[in-house]
């Protein structure tokens, strides 16, 4: 695993020592190379994990997330070039350093064996993200957004630290590979109920669960484009990944403790999808759509069947790529009109037809059109929740309908119709932007040819 | 002040603390405390104005009271054990009185009221000495009597200190008061684990001293005593703003910085001793501390507040010397990966 971590750390000296006209080229190229290295991890020969050392391992669940993380860094760098073009050189280098630091921590989080190491790196991802949101965001609300983001996550995760340490005292080791085999049922008591809550709340806040999701619209909207991309694509999946790892240790309380969170998720996905229909702010719409998709993942993880785990994993990867692409598209609008209001930039299909093609593809994958992997994820989740309880099909079906409604609403409002008179002098699409969208879309489309690599460890 | 006199007084302060830390006779310890107290008063009053006089008087009164209580506890201990050696205290009354006396010296709740006011009234360098060096002597005594301290009183004082340190700092804009409340909260963390594993108290003290030294050095470098003047450092030395950001986040206890290490170790030790609610509560209350550190970082490094000065170069008068700043900064932010080395303490 060091073959990925050390090159990523070395991206930082690369940034600081590059010449002014070479920083973007150097960092983007080398981060693309690093993502090619991580692709080799997708070859998982058996059901057991690939163990690289005492501290790092890679497993059919973490390998796709790792590939997504390393794939996203060059994309983030490409997306940030425009809004950073006017900043002084040192600030550009600082920004890239923050992104690289975040990337290092994320890679180490996804491959950590020891759960406390996972916790420390999970918390460590907060600091660079906070700095990116607060320092480089654009509106005054970003201060509040940063505080909400930091404190919601910390409040949820401090009990997790205490819970992990007490589990370590009980079982002697928190090495994830050992716990898989060593697992005993948790005895039934009040304190074990609190242990369950302490373990899960951190990830619920991160996912986010419907009642605890207030930080997400703020943080996603106020962050600059790279911040939004990494938040939507990866940081939310940290919550899902953590939940998938830690639920193995938490039986049998999950069978009854999961009910309130299942109810919140099932209701929350309908609520947040409905709110999307009434949003005026484009980034806010995409943010709420993230909450809705993640609620599906929470439902899948809490049901704990093999099919639901497959659906959760596929949905995480698919949503990562789709959501990041939608944020890039919204950002291309923002860079031209400097406003996030959807109706201010209407009818873009007439002016930017190629971008309209990307908008169409992104919206179609967002509403889970077959045969994309979004559909595979959602379908598996819907089927497994139907087998868990027949009534959930009503809510799931309603959610799929409303998702389709708002995705098409977003597409039609921004692309179709007559263009507004004030946007007839916007710059045409840059090659960089088209390349960005293509690099998002190509993995998504190619994965629909071979989805088994993202279906996780229950395939 | 005449440099010779100043050196003598400083050496007396050092000597006082050394006597406290290295004696085995209770009377010598009391003498050490008194020597320390009397010698630090002129240091606190380096600038001669009513504010400093008031602060020094408050400091003197509280510390003298604490020394007297300490003397009383020593005498009661002598009565019950017949000897003057420092071991654990043999009588519960003496133990409680001694704990209260040392809490008064450290600034633990409910004896914390002097810390913000004294720290605010004196200069930055004196405040530095007050909040770091002066904590060493009482902490060493607490370490030595730790087997006999009443757990209930100590834990109550610790938890209340963390609460007061967190809440009290929320409404402050003066940097010295912010550091004072941060000191109260950190003292709370240190005394909470004292009975369980005193080594962790020493670890926390070490890391706290490093972080506080760094913060004060950065404040002295930018000659700022309020949040407003600190927000002008982007103008003088932009690098200082980044350093302030890192050190403040470390003080707040955020991983991956070294300020997380004592909190993690303390939570681990408390959980091993089957107290679960206490460390959770302490950790959540430390978030209050983090809130006002974040506010400080916002105004200093992450945003540019509407300020009186818009020019790139601000007029600088003299460069203050900052001793040992780079090693301090490195140590106060990058020590977390060395945590497995703590196993040598077993």
Question: Would you mind describing this structure in some detail?
Answer:
Chain A: This is NADH-ubiquinone oxidoreductase chain 4. Chain A: It catalyses: a ubiquinone + NADH + 5 H(+)(in) = a ubiquinol + NAD(+) + 4 H(+)(out). Chain A: One of its GO terms (molecular function) is NADH dehydrogenase (ubiquinone) activity. Chain A: It comes from Equus caballus. Chain A: Belongs to the complex I subunit 4 family. The complex is a heterodimer of chains A (459) and B (346). Chain A has a two-stranded antiparallel sheet. In chain A, helix 3 packs antiparallel against helix 11 (225-246) and helix 4 runs parallel beside helix 11 (225-246). Chain A has helices at residues 2-17, 23-38, 62-80, 89-110, 115-124, 126-136, 142-171, 176-182, 190-206, 215-222, 225-246, 254-276, 282-303, 306-337, 348-351, 353-366, 373-388, 392-415, 431-447, and strands spanning 50-51, 57-58. Chain A has one domain. Chain A has 459 residues and is an all-alpha fold. The model of chain A has no long low-confidence stretch (mean pLDDT 91). Chain B contains 16 helices and no strands. Chain B has one domain. Chain B is an all-alpha fold and 346 residues long. In chain B, helix 14 (260-272) runs antiparallel to helix 15 (277-302). The A-B interface holds A 105, 119-121, 123-124, 126-127, 131, 134-135, 143, 146-147, 150-151, 154-155, 158-159, 161-162, 165-166, 169, 191, 194, 198 and B 245, 249, 254-257, 260, 264, 267-268, 271-272, 276, 279-280, 283-284, 287, 290-291, 294, 298, 301-303, 336.
